[in-house]
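Fig. S4 source data, part A: sequence.
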Amino acid sequence: MSTSPNAVQVIFENAIREFKANLKNDGLYSNILKTNSIDEVYDATNKLQEEQAKKGHLRHLSKIEPYLEGLRNYSSVIEVFTQAKPEILALIWGPIKLLLQWASTLKQSFDAIVNTTAEIGVLLPEFQDATTLFSHNKQVNDVLALFFQDILDFYLIALKFFSLTRWKYLFESLWPRHRDKIKVVMNHMERHTLLMRNEVRLEHIQAEHGARLRALEHFERTEKSLRRQDYQNIETNVSPRNYEGRLDWLHGRICEGTGKWLLKDAIFVKWLDTSDTSTKILWLQGIPGAGKTFLSSTVVEKTRSLGHTLFAFLSYNLTSSTSALSIIHSLMFQLASTNDDLQAVLCQSSRENLKSNLSAATDILTTLLSCAGPVYITIDGVDEIDVVERSRLLRQILEMSKVCGETKFIISSRPEADITAILDGETATIRVDNRNSGSIQAFINLNTQKWFQQRDFLPEARAEIEGLLAPLASNSKGMFLYAKIVLSSIEYLDLGEIRNEIRALPETLDDAYARILARINSLRPPTLKDKARKLLGWIGSCSTPLTIHEIEQALVVSQEDTEGKGKVLSTLNIVQICGPIVEVVDDYVQFVHFTVQEYIFSPHIKDSINAADSALSLGICCITYLCQGHHDPEILDEDIRRNILSGAYRLHDFATTMWLELIERFVCSDSVHILPDELISLLEILMHERNNRQYNGGTEQPTQWKLESFKQCWPELYDMLCKSTGFHQICSRAEYHKSQRDTWIKLDPLTISDTSTRIYAQFDQLLCKSAKHKNCHCHTIQRHYSQRPFKCHFLNCSFRRHGFQTWSLRDIHIKHHDRPWHCSFPGCDFEDGGFLSRKMRDDHLDRFHQEAQVVDVSNLEKPDSDEIQPLLFDLVKADKVDTVKAFMTEFDSLGDNIKTGLQILAARFGSPSMLELIAQWKSTYHEKNLIHASIDGKNVENFAYLLSRTKENTKEFGSDSKQQTYALDAVKVLGSGSEEIFKEWKKYVDLDMESDAKRHRTRLLYTTQDIIRSVAKNPGKESLLLMLWKEKSIFENCDKAIITSALRIVVMQDCSVNLAQFLVDRGADINYQTGQGSLPFLQHAARKTTAAAARMMEFLLRCGANPEARGNHLSIKIRDERGAKGISKWLGMSWDEIVAKAQEERAKLPAEKSAKSPSQ
């Protein structure tokens, strides 16, 4: 039975309704209907051709002619039974016209739509011939209706892509997915063409309708699943930090009404407006404890209703694992987490160096931000992370703010000198501690009333306490933390003790800390005092926080207990023991603020805690623990299970990962000159009793300067410690899995890793997979090891220690550690290892497994002699190696100067292959020019190649000669400001610090005027020099005169407070004068009239520079120098005011401290 014309027309009408419903854009649909004929499409293509001709990049629009003629053919056939409805014709011609117009604004997109349309044109049958030939088959009209659906499917996919507001940013990432979906439609067209040429029946038509829907739905499901898998694999590999828990914790403790003043502030309201480009970055600055973090959480809550909201709450206690890169990673994955399109951008953009390269990660984040629309980014606690890392982060933020038009940033921190130097003039600023007194009073009132209800004070007692607390908000001077500490310190006191405590409130935050420390030091019995001090020292001495369960286990570890029979029998109330300066957050124990650590470890306060001794104490605890019976390499599995259930492995994760770092911290401390016998004895026990007889990690280990103090007297220990350090470094980079122990276990010189894999295997056997927990050990394990006992099996993953709450969450996480995309070429290294995403696999195939393109020189027209020189310059710059090979005879005939110019060009823009081809290694001087050219071009690949050649060719040079060469390179490297170039250079620089004389020479080479001048007035370059000084230990055990000389150069060259702070911290004498008649450092700065010089003068005064010092042959005073007279222009205070303020600040410090930098 045939389908009637009316029934076919219904199919067309249904297809139109489906298209309009899925398009979800009435305005666009109306625009499509404005075009009704092929003539209008040709008019549009002719206009595009004319415009492109004017711009000089004419495209091949003739390629789409088969498609347009095929549609003309199709429209003439269907008009018979569709009654030539204008809407149907408009839907045939309108979309292609719009697509060509939209895509023409970007070369790649225009080529893509033209090529795709051309491919479809080839598939379209000769509709008139086919319908004539098969006119006897009434089902042909149904096939024509199927083609109409196919055409609309193609248009729908393309229109939805090109109607995205930011499709230009998304094109490279998202178009491949849309192109693949169009290919599904093209497959339908091929099948439908076959139907037209065969005896088609009704059941075929019905099957095709169903197949079309199923194929498109299957594509969507499969593509979404694969994309999600790619994304989760990359996310797991990068392991970005999540700050949601910290935000929730802050929201649970914020006082109602706190921050209302900020939300009403005119500057903040202006910042919220994404159309206002004058306020891209807002800086919330204030003194420590002013409530900046809680204000930042209020900002996050506000901006979530306005657009994408990203945030990072940085903390001092995670400094070792927090870098500019880790923060960028977190922001990147926060932004992409709920948006399929942005995930596709991330997957398509990802490279292997995403995990390790800040510039690559920032580029991807910039792309995501450009695609996402309004985005608000809040970063709190910038001042709490490493100086170098925060400098790198802030520079990236400044760059992103310039190109991401709808992105707003809030930075929250103290106004530290280095941060001020970077952000000065780039941000709007709100000073928090000058505005929050009302919020502090509300905080005091709320917490006091809660406290009164809990303690049930009599009315007269309440009235008395309220009177005593009346001045608390005023005394806080903008510090919530001060008010919190005072209130917490009286929480459990009786009325008489409360009177004594708050009748005279502490003057400052340090005074409040002093009272708490004094109370701890007077605890009775003395063992309680010792425990409290030990706990405070442990909390502050390690780079990663301890959990409360780990601390409980550590307290029962004893050197006398070699079997490790000590057990945790009760919970520890650490806040009750140590007072309100500590808190437990998500099982981790930490100080309530980083200023607590600064205070209690300060050597300038009475009864302070020694940081080095605390690191030693915790390190000895960990080593003792690892030497106890529960870590015996011969222990039976049943004993391991028994130990797990008794809680004996509470400290295992922390001890195995941190024992070596704690020892390094101790031996690197300035106060440590002799290694204690107790430590040496324990390390020798560890070395002998935990010796891995199967060790196969090599005998040669890189020198570990941190462990040099062991080398001379205890060479065996030094060797073991170096091997352990190397193993830990390998584990941090490699994807080692505990269940695949055979691939890495022999790299550990100790048996600790072997025992660890056995412990984790038993953990997995004891933990049940069920959520109902019947007849299992889960409750016992959770009591000892927290609510997250399911640990990741990968050694370099943060969840190896942090864990998951359920088996399923852990397994989902581990699954995304896999690299499922394998290379298909036999013998390739990645045939088994695989890649995180399809994009990485495809890039690998394109790069390494494409057939080599052979240049047919015979077809190349031989250029005239006048043309050969400019041709070679073009080819070398474009890195056309194979083509240049064809002209080597002509190259050899060129003059030396021209050859040198081509070689320099190759070093800047080419590849190592091009350099190998045309470089003539005439001399070391010539190689040096090539190296410098690669630096100028920021060509990292060539730079690394040339450095490796230079190192190989200078093996016979003396050490001093090589040091001189490296130092000369350093000027160019630092001056480039390229972090990638700097990292490559560091790989080849082996500073000779073996003897005092060589150490002295090396220091002089890396503190010259040229070195410091190369980074002048550029915070990014300064951070590279700081990194060099730190990592290469340039000033380790250095003569004070060299450090002071370096400070003199810094003051004279660029007045960098960052560099000056580093040198002052290491003992530079700020009042030193080189000889009779020489100027003091302060006067050198005062002779300059720049903002940097003004900050330098303030810094030197705060560090104790003498404002009355003078060069002996001069009568002019420092105060009368031009820079000193005009300092108010930059700092808002006169010279006398700044001098008085600096003297007032230093008068509060003990005499010993006042002679040093205020940061110490």
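Fig. S4 source data, part B ends here. The radius of gyration is 36 Å.
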